[in-house]
Amino acid sequence: MTSTPPDGDGLRILVCVKRVPDASSTVVLTEDAQAVDGRYVGFTLSNHENCAVEMAVRLADATGGSATVLTLGPEESTDQLIGALSLGCRAATVIVADSSRFGPADVAREIAAVVRDHESAGSPYDLVLLGNDAADTGDFQVGIRLAYALERPVVNGVSTVEVADGVLTAHAAAADGEETYSVPLPAVATVLEGGVEPRYPTIKGRIAAKKVSIEHREPTAEPVGPDRVRLLLPPPQPSAVQVLGEGPGAAAAVVDLLESLGVGR
Predict the structure, then answer these.
(1) pTM reported for the whole predicted model
(2) Of 127, 191, 197, whose CA–CA distance to 164 is shortest?
(3) Domain 12-260, architecture per CATH
């Protein structure tokens, strides 16, 4: 069953998210080193994508439009879609598949297919937002590949955006400050965390999210797969401990250390 946002003059925004392992604790790879093992840590969205959802909802609210959330992943990925719905997205689509078998080109192809199908059904998207890169595999190609497939302009690594008169103005951090880009709609943009502060769901939002019928789709083609040899974890950072002394004899050393740190000034 398809859930379609109502018609209106405001912006129609599609925000694409990915179910990823919660890496707030020790990161463990799968046996084949192709992915982060999330069996024991739970799943979530990346900070980039949380900001993309927030950006989509703000733009939709400001223009009287609507935000739709999409993911490619297992059936359990609907948990993350419901989370986005509780924040203000008004429709959701899940492409049910084993995401580990899909490379960036595969994911971009499937998102493009959804965009085209919704457009042919009378629900075109003015803007597609994605996280800047995947939190679990580090892939950062999907936004560019999607824009190429849809023949739309793309801006990567944006912090904030504005839309006026059919033009997207995107701001991105740069080494010497901030860069600003202006591109015509429809467009694609990938979002970096930090530009907006994601909101928390309300009780009303959670209740409303459970009433939304999520569109379920199958992939349009067999995936080519990721062109990945393996993931590598960085070596643990060594830690150093300085023993200041034992018992009352260490008091003077502690005072010296505190003074060197500026404590008490």
Answers:
(1) 0.79
(2) 127
(3) 3-Layer(aba) Sandwich (3.40)
